[in-house]
Design goal:
The protein has 114 residues and is mainly beta. It is built from 1 helix and 6 strands. The protein has a single domain, classed as predicted glycosyltransferase like domains (Thrombin, subunit H), CATH 2.40.10. A 6-stranded antiparallel beta barrel has the order 1-2-3-6-5-4. Strand 2 and strand 3 form a beta hairpin. 18% of the residues are buried.
Length: 114
């Protein structure tokens, strides 16, 4: 049964994660208005607050903060863990980027061309 409240958009982007005064890299797998799924090789505990930098396609950097809500082992991947993150803070760049992705998903016949 689907538990997500917001539509997820598949997007692969490089990220830097900061938690407990340590930083490490990861790969954003999908995103939504209120959440992210990131794969990384660092075991971060559920409930941990993390700061996230997303390296956007235009070379800009979005800055977010989130809480690890779920994690899973990724045994069939070279990346060890998958983190489901609930966003608590996001910048305008991320909001604009997400809006542009959602706009791309609107069927062309739904867009008023007047």
């Amino acid at each position: 049964m689907e538990q997500r409240k917001e539509r997820r958009i598949s997007k692969k982007l490089y990220v830097q994660l900061y938690s407990d005064k340590k930083f490490f890299s990861g790969l954003l797998n999908d995103l939504s208005k209120n959440g992210l799924f990131i794969q990384c090789n660092r075991d971060i505990p559920i409930g941990a607050v993390i700061d996230i930098e997303i390296f956007m396609p235009d070379k800009s950097t979005a800055v977010l903060t989130g809480i690890v809500r779920r994690k899973m082992d990724m045994p069939k991947s070279h990346i060890k863990y998958g983190l489901a993150i609930e966003l608590s803070k996001q910048d305008a760049l991320y909001a604009t980027f997400l809006a542009s992705l959602l706009y791309e998903l609107i069927p062309k016949y739904c867009i008023n061309k007047d």
